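testing teh design pipeline on a random one, pls ignore if ur not involved
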């Protein structure tokens, strides 16, 4: 990791993320999507063979495969998945908004009703690792929202199968269908539909640069939650935190991806050097050492600031996906944070809690997207149509508001639609 003393001129370098340029792969992804639009299953199967190295006879996971998966994994993992699912359900049930209405004036009542999306597609990444936790994080809030059909896509292994833990998690979460399709072809399949895979209304879930590019291109034909790139962490801490805790927090995110970004911001220079030393020491023995070293050499920084307020400024500019706050006055620090996907307070709140068990969602905005997006929630699967009930008396009180504006804008039929109701 690079240790630097903060000054304003370095800010752009500090907040810079992965150098992967999504624009470079857009033409390739667009070709894949156009092929899927036209050739459907044939194209999907062709890309699965090309990119995943497996020739599938059946894309859909069968009930028998799910039952078999339960037999193949450890009971402790099954219980852990069930426990995580329970916490996720509890948290996401609390996110359900209430319908409401109010009297604007006599005879004018307006409000919002809540309706779920019809069909949702959840993308579950594969490649470097299996992510049964992402099944829980995407399917459960959709289920709680009342989505009628939840479809999952995930890359198959070389044996043409989906990892057992993912199948078990999909069953625990309540997914309706799961398909052995990954990458941009999975996004195209769910966006446009095929003979086998249904078209959905919205696609959620993280993925690699090709998945992210595909989600950007299909947006408009379907909804998406937000583009999500490589994992990010910013730790904002002072001498009240433990250097070893911070080092492990950083390594836990760096091991995700060579393009993951990990930043430690502190006003305590001594702690900064101690964390740097601990990271070198611990990473030497890490299972995913190569990935960690690639990540930290490219995007790992220890930033020494003059005080916590300057650290807060840097944090808000960075707008991290994950933010750990471990300071003398966490309440004050939190009150000043505007931009973060998910926040972890105190010395005993590692990001792993949100990734797996505390109930909050780990599908979060990256690339400074926390400036404008929140993490995935139950509300992402709900629509809020507005409703208004207006009596003749109510319309009469609105006439003098509607008519001048409609006629000024040249929409005379709008004005007449009001006038006709009073022609007698």
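output:
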């Amino acid at each position: 990791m690079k240790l630097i003393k903060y000054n304003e001129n370095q800010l752009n370098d500090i907040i810079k993320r992965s150098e992967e340029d999504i624009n470079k792969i857009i033409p390739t992804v667009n070709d894949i999507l156009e092929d899927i639009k036209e050739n459907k299953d044939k194209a999907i199967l062709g890309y699965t063979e090309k990119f995943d190295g497996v020739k599938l006879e059946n894309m859909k996971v069968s009930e028998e495969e799910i039952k078999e998966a339960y037999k193949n994994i450890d009971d402790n993992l099954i219980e852990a998945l069930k426990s995580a699912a329970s916490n996720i359900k509890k948290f996401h049930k609390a996110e359900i908004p209430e319908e409401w209405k109010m009297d604007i004036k006599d005879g004018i009542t307006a409000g919002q009703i809540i309706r779920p999306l019809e069909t949702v597609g959840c993308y579950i990444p594969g490649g470097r690792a299996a992510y049964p936790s992402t099944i829980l994080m995407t399917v459960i809030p959709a289920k709680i929202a009342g989505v009628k059909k939840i479809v999952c896509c995930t890359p198959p292994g070389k044996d043409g199968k989906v990892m057992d833990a993912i199948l078990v998690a999909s069953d625990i979460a309540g997914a309706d269908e799961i398909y052995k399709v990954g990458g941009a072809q999975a996004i195209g399949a769910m966006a446009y539909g095929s003979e086998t895979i249904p078209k959905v209304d919205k696609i959620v879930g993280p993925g690699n640069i090709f998945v992210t590019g595909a989600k950007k291109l299909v947006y408009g034909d379907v909804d998406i939650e937000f583009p999500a790139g490589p994992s990010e962490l910013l730790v904002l801490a002072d001498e009240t935190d433990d250097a070893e805790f911070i080092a492990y927090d950083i390594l836990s995110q760096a091991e995700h991806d060579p393009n993951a970004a990990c930043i430690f911001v502190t006003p305590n220079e001594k702690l900064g050097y101690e964390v740097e030393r601990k990271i070198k020491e611990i990473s030497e023995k890490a299972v995913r050492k190569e990935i960690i070293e690639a990540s930290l050499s490219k995007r790992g920084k220890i930033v020494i600031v003059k005080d916590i307020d300057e650290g807060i400024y840097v944090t808000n500019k960075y707008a991290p996906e994950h933010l750990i706050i471990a300071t003398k006055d966490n309440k004050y620090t939190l009150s000043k944070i505007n931009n973060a996907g998910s926040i972890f307070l105190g010395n005993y709140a590692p990001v792993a809690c949100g990734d797996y068990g505390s109930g909050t969602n780990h599908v979060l905005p990256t690339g400074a997207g926390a400036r404008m997006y929140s993490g995935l929630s139950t509300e992402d699967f709900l629509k809020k149509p507005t409703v208004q009930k207006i009596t003749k008396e109510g319309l009469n009180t609105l006439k003098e508001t509607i008519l001048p504006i409609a006629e000024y804008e040249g929409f005379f039929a709008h004005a007449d639609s009001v006038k006709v109701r009073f022609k007698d």
